[in-house]
Amino acid sequence: MTQRDWERLEELHKRVNTCPLGAGALAGTTFPIDREYTADRLGFERIYANSLDAVSDRDFAVEFLCASSLIVAHLSRMSEEMILWASQEFSFIRLTDSCSTGSSIMPQKKNPDIPELVRGKTGRVFGHLQGMLVLIKALPLAYNKDMQEDKEALFDSVKTVKGCLEAMTILLNEGIEFRTERLASAVAEDFSNATDVADYLAAKGVPFREAYNLVGKVVRTCLESNKLLKELTIEEWQALHPKFEEDIYAAIAPSQVISARNSLGGTGFTRVREALAQAKATIA
Predict the structure, then answer these.
(1) What's the pLDDT score for residue 99?
(2) Which of 73, 101, 182, 197 lies most in the core, judged by the most C-beta atoms within 10 Å?
(3) 0.85 exceeded by the pTM?
(4) Buried b (16+ CB within 10 A) or exposed e, 124-144
(5) How far is the C-alpha of 197 from the C-alpha of 181, rounded, in Å?
(6) First CA to last CA across the chain, in angstroms?
């Protein structure tokens, strides 16, 4: 998501890097100015070809607010993950003191300040985008005084998005500690590896439709006997289907479940290491 945000800003910059200088109030000027010279000196790639459009255009502001809205939407989604992971029910991460504050009435509580504030600021940027679209929706060409309202939306969004990015960077760098023992226990407490039972049977020649239906029966059996998949005996496995062998336990082990997802873009260890290397190369 972050890479798309970066690419979107680069594409946006190329399209909006257009100089309006010399368009005058609406119709250009009678003086022999060189618009291309001034645009070049100011670092623009081109000039507006139509003076009426140059004065009345706010596409650049709308596009920037669109890109900004997606940036904060992505940050908000990440924030939601952090808030859930830090909750007592999940406890996947621990917030450090540098990125959290205590509760006003609960001394034991750590508030996820940064992700909650970023999540809240997202609506602010969304509102600026909606406000800008409403602002321009019925304006005739050339300048209208309504357009002075574009400044607050644009400038505040720049400030807000920049602040959110900086805060989230600090959070990721120094604000969270992963509780690896809790993470390891979490993946061993449910039936998230049930799909791998179906894949196991399919790899042994059982049609996937049949394997899929059988897994539902396996899970029901476990629920009725208050067991997890790993707790079934080999006799119980083989009573469900003769294709099950001792290697079923290795196939549904959490580390193997992850390793097996090794397709391009998958979450297997090898693919994640490749993705990290690519991300570092992109940043560099």
Answers:
(1) 85
(2) 197
(3) yes
(4) ebbebbeebeebbeeeeeeee
(5) 25
(6) 18
Characterize 174-196 residue by residue with b for buried, 16 or more Cβ atoms within 10 angstroms of its Cβ, and e for exposed.
ebbeebeeeeeeeeeeeeebbeb
Structure tokens belonging to residue 132: 């800008």
Strand 110-111 versus strand 101-102 pairing type: antiparallel
The domain limits of the chain are 2-179, 194-275
The total of other beta-carbon atoms located within 10 Å of residue 99's CB is: 20
**CA quadruple 79, 84, 86, 87: dihedral, nearest 10:** 140
User: Identity (one letter) of the amino acid at 260?
Assistant: A
Closest-CA residue to 103 (of 114, 113, 111, 93) = 111
Beta-bridged to residue 129, according to DSSP, are none
102: enclosing H helix or E strand = strand 101-102
One-letter amino acid identity for 111?
N
Instruction: List, run by run, the mean pLDDT of 10-residue segments along the chain (284 residues).
Output: 95 95 94 97 96 95 98 98 94 90 76 94 98 95 93 97 97 95 91 94 95 93 92 93 95 94 94 95 92
Instruction: Report whether CATH 1.10.10.10 matches the domain 2-179.
Output: no
Residue with tokens 């390891």: 184
Beta-carbon contacts of residue 208 (< 8 Å; ≥ 6 apart): 198, 202
Which superfamily, per CATH, for 194-275?
Fumarase/aspartase (C-terminal domain) (1.10.40.30)
DSSP labels for 244-270? --TTHHHHTSHHHHHHT--STT--SHH
Dihedrals φ, ψ of 176, to 5°? -130, 145
Tell how far CA 277 is from the center of its chain: 19
CA 256 – CA 268 distance, rounded (Å): 9
Two structure tokens written together for 218: 């396996």
